[in-house]
Specification:
The complex is a heterodimer.
Chain A lengths: L18 H18 L13 E6 L5 H12 L3 E6 L8 H13 L4 E6 L4 H8 L3 E7 L5 H14 L7 E5 L6 H12 L3 E5 L15 E3 L2 H4 L5 E4 L5 H4 L6 H8 L3 H4 L7 E3 L12 H4 L6 H20 L2
Parallel strand pairs in A: 1-2, 1-3, 3-4, 5-6, 5-8, 6-7, 8-9
Helix pairs in contact in A: 1-5, 1-12, 2-12, 5-6, 5-12
Chain B lengths: L3 E10 L4 E10 L2 E6 L9 E4 L4 E4 L1 E6 L12 H11 L1 E6 L10 H13 L6 E4 L15 H6 L15 H12 L5 E3 L4 H4 L4 E2 L2 H6 L3 E2 L1 H18 L3 E3 L5 H12 L4 E5 L1 H5 L21 H13 L4 E2 L8 H4 L16 H10 L6 H15 L14 E11 L18 E11 L2 E4 L1
Helix pairs in contact in B: 4-7, 7-8, 8-10
Classes of the chains: A alpha/beta, B alpha/beta.
Chain lengths: ~300, ~425
C-alpha cells in the first residue's frame, strides 16, 4: 500500500500535498539519515544529475543544507546567487531560468522573495522545481523536516498539539507547517500579536491565541518563529522589548506546563527575543536535531524527484 | 457611405423605453427613417439584423489607451480598434499617460489622434487629471481642460488622498458640471498589497489589499460630495460594503454614480491561486460575497455602469512574478460577452438594462447622451445575443493580450458598429 513515487514532479508547497506523499518523504528521509551516520556519507544515487540552486534571497543554512544533500547524493551542483538591488526583476528571473535550463539542468532549487515564483518557473522551464522558500508563501522542506523531527520524538502526530509562535503573517515556515501538520492530523494553533496574524486564518481551522501563557499549559510542541527586527519599524509591534516580555518563550513560562514542551525553531535564533537562551539550549529543544534532519529530508526530496 | 438599411433588428433604447423590431435607414450617417418594413431599394446596402439587437452606441467610460507615453502597450489606434471590435462606439480614456492629461495640449492631442484612428469610427473623450501630474498636490487647469474637451476628472490610479484638495476639486468641478471619477483606494491601507486580503491571501502569503481601503475613501468622498454638491463617480467598485455605501448615498440624495468591471462580477480571488499574473488587477478580485453584491447592485441600479478598466500591458511586463507584475487586464473585447453570459442569461439584468449600463447611463454621466430618432446621427452597436464563441486573446485587436479569460466560452457578442458615417461589421 505504500507509495514509491510522489504524485507531482515538483515540490512547490505542502498545501494540498497528499498524506501518502508526505509519508513517503519521511520514510525515505529515515533511510538517508542512517547514511548520514555512517563514516562515509556519500551515495551514488544522483550521479550524472545536475542540480542548480537558484537563490534570489539571502540564505546560508537552507542553501548549505540543500547543497550538502545534493553532494551526498553525488549530483553535480551549480550555485546561482543574486543578492542586492538586482534581485526581483522578473525578466532576470525568466532569463536566468531559461539560460540555466539551456545548460541541461535536471532539478532547480529556488528561493525567491516573491510568493509563487516556483509555480512561475514550472511554466517556463522543464526541470523539476523544488521550492526552498517563496516570499511569505511556503517553505515545504522546512516544514517536512519539522514534521520529521516531531515524528522521531512522538509516536503519532495525530492530535499532537502544536502551536506556532510569532510572526505568522510574514512566515512561509508557518504556512507550510500549518498545511503539512493538518494533513498529518495534528491540532495546530498559532500565537502572536494581532497585527502579525493574517486575516481569516481561523477559516483554515486554526485556533488563534494572543497570550503565550494561555497556550503553554495546553500544547505538546511550540514551534517558535524568528521575529524579524524590521517588523518593529513596519509598525507591527511597538518594541522588541515588549515583544519579548509578552511573547518570548522563557524557561519560567515553560515551567508552568504539566509535561515538558518540545521546542522547535527554524533558525537563526534571536536569543532572548523570541526564545530565551536557556530554552534554546535546553533539554527539550530539538533545534539542532532539526538541522541534522534537514539534510536527510532534503536528500529524500531530491532523490524522489530526481530519480525517474 | 452608401445608404444603409438596418433590416429587421430588435431595436432597444432605454432612453425611450423602446424594444421593437424595426428597419432603420441611414443616409450619410444620419437616421432617415425608423419603422418596420422599410421598402428596400437597389442602391441600399442591406444589413440583415434578424434576431440581432440594435442598440444606441456603447460607451466604455474607463479605458487606458496608453498614448502618449506607453505606446508599446497600446496606442489610440489599436485601442480604438479594440473598442470597435468589442462593440463600443466611444471610450473615455484615463489620464495616466506620460505626460498625464493635465493640460490642454495633451487633451487635444488625444482627440486629434482619435479622429485619425480607424477613420474616427470610435469617439474618444479624454478624462482630465484632477491635479497637476496626478500628484495630488495642486489642482490641474480644470477649466482649460474642460474647454479642450475633457468630460470628467480623475487622477485614476493615484487617488486624491488629501481631503482638502479633494474638496477643492469637487467644488471647482461644479462650475462645469462634470463628474469627479475616483479610483477609491486609501493607499496607506492598501500598502504594498497585490490581491484581496482574506483567506486566499493568507494561504498564498501574498500581501493583501483590504476591502476597507476602498470603502474608507468612498465614505469620505460621499461626505465631501454631499458638502460640495458635486457629481461623484466611483470607478471600478469592488466590495459589497462599497456598494452598500453608494446605495445609501443615493438614498440620501447625494449625486453619486458607480461603475463595475466585468471581471469584478465574474471572477473571485480563488483564481489567484494559480499565481497567474493576469489575475492581478486593482482593485483586486474579491470574494463570492462581493461578486454577488456587484450583481445585486447592477440589478437594483446602485451600479449605473459597466466599464472595462481596459488596462493593456505587454507580455514581458506581465510575465514576471506576482509581486512585480503590473496591475490590470484588457477588457474591451470580452465585456459584452461576459455581461450577456453572466448577467442577461441568468436573468440578473434584462437586455434593456444591459444597454442602459453600457450606453445610456455612461453617456449621461459624462454628458455625451445621444438621441436615436429620425434626423439624428446614427450611432449604433449591433449585438448577436445568442452566438457562442471562445475567447482567443491572440485574435484581440488590442496590442496587449493580458486577459484571464482566454479560452472561456461566452454567449453573445457585438457583431458590428456604426458611428460617424462609418460601418464596421465583423
Amino acid at each position: 500500500m505504500n507509495a514509491t513515487k510522489l504524485s507531482s514532479r515538483h515540490l512547490l508547497g505542502l498545501q494540498g500535498m497528499p498524506k501518502e506523499d508526505i509519508q513517503l518523504i519521511l520514510e525515505t528521509a529515515k533511510s538517508f539519515k542512517e547514511i548520514l551516520n555512517r563514516p562515509i556519507k556519500k551515495v551514488p544515487t544522483l550521479q550524472g544529475k545536475t542540480i542548480a540552486n537558484l537563490f534570489f534571497e539571502n540564505s546560508t543554512r537552507t542553501r548549505i543544507s540543500f547543497e550538502l544533500a545534493e553532494r551526498r547524493l553525488s549530483a553535480d551542483v551549480v550555485n546561482f546567487s543574486v543578492t542586492g538591488s538586482s534581485v526581483g526583476k522578473g525578466e532576470t528571473l525568466k532569463d536566468t531560468a531559461r539560460n540555466i535550463e539551456a545548460m541541461k539542468i535536471d532539478t532547480v532549487v529556488i528561493r525567491h522573495s516573491a510568493a509563487g515564483t516556483p509555480q512561475f518557473l514550472t511554466k517556463i522551464i522543464q526541470a523539476n522545481i523544488i521550492n526552498a522558500g517563496d516570499g511569505c508563501h511556503e517553505h515545504p522542506t522546512q516544514a517536512l523536516l519539522d514534521i520529521y523531527t516531531l515524528q522521531e520524538k512522538f509516536p503519532s502526530l495525530k492530535n499532537l498539539r502544536v502551536c506556532i509562535v510569532g510572526d505568522i503573517l510574514h512566515s512561509r515556515v508557518a504556512r507550510s507547517n500549518i498545511f503539512g501538520l493538518q494533513t498529518m492530523g495534528a491540532k495546530v494553533s498559532v500565537c502572536g500579536p494581532a497585527t502579525l496574524i493574517p486575516r481569516e486564518l481561523e477559516k483554515l481551522g486554526i485556533e488563534i491565541f494572543h497570550h503565550i501563557d494561555d497556550v503553554i499549559p495546553n500544547v505538546d510542541v511550540l514551534n517558535v518563529l524568528r521575529i524579524q527586527l524590521e517588523r518593529q519599524s513596519g509598525g507591527f509591534f511597538p518594541s522588541v522589548r515588549e515583544y519579548h516580555t509578552f511573547f518570548g518563550v522563557t524557561k519560567e513560562r515553560l515551567e508552568k506546563a504539566h509535561t515538558p514542551i518540545t521546542i522547535l525553531h527554524p533558525g537563526p535564533i534571536n536569543r532572548d527575543v523570541e526564545l530565551s537562551a536557556d530554552v534554546a539550549d535546553g533539554s527539550h529543544s530539538l533545534i539542532l536535531e532539526q538541522v541534522t534532519n534537514g539534510v536527510a529530508v532534503r536528500m529524500a526530496v531530491l532523490y524522489l524527484l530526481g530519480v525517474e | 457611405m452608401p445608404t444603409i438599411l438596418l433590416h429587421s433588428g430588435r431595436f432597444i433604447d432605454p432612453s425611450t423605453h423602446t424594444d421593437s423590431i424595426v428597419d432603420i435607414l441611414i443616409v450619410n450617417g444620419i437616421i432617415e427613417k425608423i419603422q418596420p418594413n422599410i421598402p428596400q431599394q437597389k442602391n441600399y446596402q442591406i444589413i440583415n439584423l434578424k434576431n440581432k439587437i440594435i442598440a444606441p452606441g456603447f460607451m466604455d467610460m474607463h479605458v487606458h489607451f496608453r498614448e502618449p507615453g506607453f505606446e508599446h502597450k497600446e496606442t489610440i489606434t489599436s485601442g480604438t480598434l479594440s473598442a470597435a471590435y468589442g462593440g463600443f462606439t466611444s471610450a473615455c480614456c484615463m489620464p495616466n499617460t506620460n505626460p498625464a492629461i493635465d493640460d490642454e495640449a495633451i487633451a487635444q492631442f488625444i482627440q486629434t489622434q482619435a479622429k485619425k484612428a480607424n477613420n474616427g469610427i470610435v469617439d474618444v473623450y479624454p478624462i482630465g487629471a484632477v491635479t497637476k501630474k496626478r500628484e495630488g498636490k495642486e489642482l490641474a487647469p480644470i477649466a482649460e481642460l474642460v474647454q479642450a474637451g475633457v468630460i470628467g476628472l480623475s487622477d485614476d490610479g493615484a487617488p486624491v488622498s488629501n481631503a482638502n484638495i479633494m474638496r477643492r476639486a469637487l467644488e471647482y468641478s461644479t462650475m462645469y458640471n462634470i463628474p469627479l471619477i475616483q479610483h477609491c483606494e486609501d493607499q496607506t491601507l492598501a500598502h504594498n498589497g497585490v490581491m484581496n486580503e482574506g483567506k486566499i491571501s493568507t494561504e498564498l502569503g501574498l500581501p493583501g489589499i483590504p476591502g476597507i481601503a476602498e470603502e474608507v475613501m468612498i465614505a469620505r468622498d460621499l461626505l465631501l460630495t454631499e458638502y460640495t454638491k458635486a457629481k461623484y463617480h466611483v470607478a471600478h467598485i469592488s466590495t459589497a460594503n462599497a456598494v452598500q455605501l453608494v446605495r445609501e448615498g443615493k438614498k440620501k440624495g447625494i449625486h453619486v454614480t458607480s461603475e463595475v468591471t466585468p471581471h469584478h462580477f465574474v471572477l473571485t480571488d480563488e483564481i489567484v491561486r494559480s499565481f497567474e499574473t493576469n489575475t492581478k488587477m486593482n482593485p483586486p478580485l474579491r470574494t463570492q460575497k462581493d461578486v454577488d453584491a456587484m450583481k445585486e447592485g447592477l440589478r437594483d441600479g446602485t451600479i449605473d455602469v459597466i466599464a472595462t478598466d481596459h488596462a493593456p500591458h505587454s507580455l514581458d511586463e506581465k510575465e514576471v512574478d506576482y509581486l512585480q507584475a503590473p496591475f490590470g487586464i484588457v477588457g474591451l473585447e470580452t465585456a459584452i460577452g461576459l455581461s450577456i453570459t453572466e448577467l442577461v442569461e441568468p436573468k440578473i439584468l434584462s437586455m434593456m438594462q444591459l444597454v442602459e449600463k453600457f450606453s445610456t447611463n455612461p453617456r449621461k454621466i459624462v454628458g455625451k447622451s445621444i438621441i436615436i430618432k429620425e434626423g439624428e446621427k446614427a450611432n449604433f452597436t449591433f449585438i448577436d445575443p445568442t452566438v457562442e464563441w471562445k475567447v482567443n486573446t491572440e485574435q484581440f485587436k488590442s496590442k496587449s493580450k493580458n486577459s484571464p479569460f482566454n479560452g472561456k466560452i461566452l454567449k453573445g457578442k457585438a457583431i458590428g458598429i456604426f458611428n460617424n458615417n462609418q460601418l464596421l461589421q465583423y
